[in-house]
Amino acid sequence: MTPGTRLLVNAQGERYRFDPGSLSLELMLTGGPGPYERYEIAHTPSDLADWFTGSRLGLTAPLTDVRIRPAELTALKELRDTLYRVAPALARGEAPSDDDLAKLNSATEATPRPLVDPKTRKLAWAPPVTGKQLLGAVARDAIGLVAGERSGRVRECSADDCHLLFFDTSRSGNRRWCSMERCGNRAKIRAYRARTETA
């Protein structure tokens, strides 16, 4: 599977692929506050380190040496909770709160450092990649969604029973579904049934 694409399981046990299109929105899939606590997968620093190795940061260069300390795990979860307020506001066309923007701004101090691997002459991340650097990468990505060239493209799935958020990477900017495998397919089936019943 391409880094950044996640295999999710719905309440009925069906599996489907979902690419949120953004590192910050991808982090939201690891759990969250309130009703999202039941989806928590980042119980320990090593849990989150393992998760990051499959993240979209791997599209740039493989993540092989990720080290997250307990305090960094806490900071990443706090940033994730902030994203649960920022991203839905963006999807509704609303401005995030000044407090939440300040939290994003304050987290961008460090990011993973790219380098050229002398053996392969390919791009790599300077080891080790720390939790603080990952925090900075996620915060910078979120800032790009709020104010960068990518602003205005955060969407919520159009299905009534789905609240997944994604960055719309489509050329036309009219992506509606979290995944064509799941919600898009269900919508097509409903539309087909409605047409055949009318006919």
UniProtKB/TrEMBL annotation:
Coiled coil residues, start to end: none
Span of domain Zinc finger CGNR: 153-195
One Pfam family, please name it: ABATE
**Gene3D superfamilies of this UniProt entry?**
Jann2411-like domain
Organism superkingdom: Bacteria
- Return the SUPFAM superfamilies for the record: Jann2411-like
Q: What is this protein called?
A: Zinc finger CGNR domain-containing protein
Tell me which species this is from: Amycolatopsis azurea DSM 43854
